[in-house]
Amino acid sequence: MDRHKDGVFHFILRQVHNEADAIELAMETFVRAYFNIAKFRPAAKFTTWLYQIALNLCRDHVRSRAYQRSFRTISLHDPQQEGSDTDFLSTTDRGPDQRMERIEELDALEKAISELSAELKAPLILTALENRQQAEVAEILGISLKAVETRVYRARRSLLEKMNKLGF
What we know:
Blueprint: H1 5-16, H2 19-35, H3 46-63, H4 65-70, H5 96-114, H6 118-129, H7 134-141, H8 145-165
């Protein structure tokens, strides 16, 4: 659990966009892994199996009515959030205008990613943000390697179109 907790949490957070829900779903992921360890096939990678559990929980959560009523996007520049990866925004070599433009661009990108279909969002997050190999992503999602390549391409193309329309 110590080895995988941060990765699983960040993966889930990118799926559900709510820190409290991400914490709860990450805990549930490890609980389900513990109680279903007998179903784990040693021929597969443990992380692949663990992320599949997390992804299934995220899908269930997104479909739930409670999620629909409480949807909130967490901002990348919210000073209230602890542990967020915003240190790159406060570098000294950027002026206030450049930092503000970067924040606006990141907000637009975050919104565009959240608007992707689950079919496109999951492969993109796993490959681009979680730095997983496409073969591992294919195994996690239960799809072919070519399907992963295609979905990541389509997701990036969609993001590029949305960002261009917004002037970024």
